[in-house]
Amino acid sequence: MEEAGGCRGACVGPPPWERPGAAAELEYVDLDEFLREHGLPPSPPPPPAPARPPAPGPPRGPPTPPAPGEPLLEAEALGGGGGGPFDPRRLRFSQDELRPQPIARKARKVHVPEEQKDEKYWSRRSKNNAAAKRSRDARRLKENQISVRAAFLERENAALRQEVAAARRELARFRALLARYEARHGAL
Predict the structure, then answer these.
(1) Using H for helix, E for strand and C for coil, what is the string for 3-46?
(2) Tag placement on the chain: N or C end, fewer CB within 10 Å?
């Protein structure tokens, strides 16, 4: 059910793109540009539809999942903590990481009188501000990684759909060829 402002479901405020000054915050990233910036080869273009069917080769199965001991989300991917660059082909997100986070109410701000703002207060404030910035940056990075991974998977899905369509055309051609052979020489 559509609510005012085009919001669906739980809506706390206007969407980010409708907030004043939010246009500067939004950043759209081209997948190939992102991969090049991080030293990875760009994603391969989807294969063109073959003019003639390719020679039969070994059967191709679904992509292999990560090994059982391999973590689903590397901690280095969020902070750049010495790990390799983000690779949307390798990174897997667990269901918990993809689940929407609950909307928590903020605690009311407590006004602190000027006379109580001592050195301890200001050091705690600066530590809290730094922690909040790290948290926002980590969330933004994770959201960007998920969107890049989704774009990569959409491209991969389109390429696989084209492969399946080509295989179905090849199967239909072979079935027609077999039917002509059986009509001419009898059943196998």
Answers:
(1) CHHHCECCCCCCCHHHCCCHHHCCCCCCHHHHHHHCCCCCCCCC
(2) N
Q: Is the dihedral of CA 4, 8, 9, 10 positive or negative?
A: negative
- Of 42 and 6, more confident: 42
Let me know: does 46 contact 159? Beta carbons within 8 Å.
Answer: yes
Residue 161 phi, psi dihedral angles, 5° rounding: -65, -40
Q: Which is it for the CA torsion 64, 69, 70, 71, positive or negative? A: positive
SS3 label, residue 53: coil
Q: Round to whole Å and give the CA distance between 21 and 30.
A: 23
What's the pTM? 0.44
pLDDT of residue 16: 56
Q: How many CB atoms lie within 10 A of CB 32?
A: 15
Cα torsion 141, 86, 40, 89 to 10°: value is -110
Per-residue model confidence as pLDDT tens digits over 158-176: 999 999 999 999 999 999 9
- Residue whose C-alpha is closest to residue 157's, from 46, 59, 40, 30: 46
2: helix, coil or strand?
strand
Amino acid, res. 30: D
Q: Please tell me the predicted confidence (pLDDT) of residue 173.
A: 97
